[in-house]
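thread from #wetlab-drylab

HS: before we spend reagent money on co-crystallization trials with zinc ion, can we at least see a predicted complex? here's what I'd submit
DV: go for it
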Amino acid sequence: MYDGLSGRYTFRCPAAGEARVRLSRFRSLERLAGPSHPAVYRVRFACPCGEEHEGLVSHDELDWAPLGASADAFLNLMTGRLEPAADELLALAATRIGAGEWPWSFFCYPEGRPRPVFPSAFRLLAAAEERVGVAVRCPGCGGTSVNVVTQRHVDEPFFNDLHVGVVEHVFRADADALVDAFRAELDSGSFDARRLGL
Ligand SMILES: [Zn+2]
Ligand SMILES: [Zn+2]
């Protein structure tokens, strides 16, 4: 379902049959209740057809596939053969994470500091002019923050904006209140630029 070459997830579209979208076109993520392993997320996404649809994504596809876990094979130029790629790509990602590089990060407003994160911590996303507003549940403190970032910051692992917009608002945890406050704060357009990275 995740295509590593294009960085897109494939979902069903009632109009076109199939839709291929990047992470930044996701609009909401909700972990489904139940003991499923891996966990499954219900995703709402902005389809190229103009409508929003729902689809399901596993936890692995959400967090690990963009790091190469789903890669089937790569062309080894030394041998001229297709070889399995996932192990090498994941090892490379692990090395970079070990060296302090973060595949994804955000600025936690309640804690006043940047934090590493995975896409499964994203709760809501919305287009905000040329950028993307994203509500993230902090894996550290459990608080929810809204950052305004570039599409690339969301879509491309290990690409982190130097500065992100931070909404100075403590969001309530319940989903309905979050949706309303998220939209209202993004529409107000007042974000403080904060520096990511240590
Ligand atoms: Zn569609
Ligand atoms: Zn936090």
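DV: The radius of gyration is 17 Å.
HS: ok that's useful, forwarding to the group
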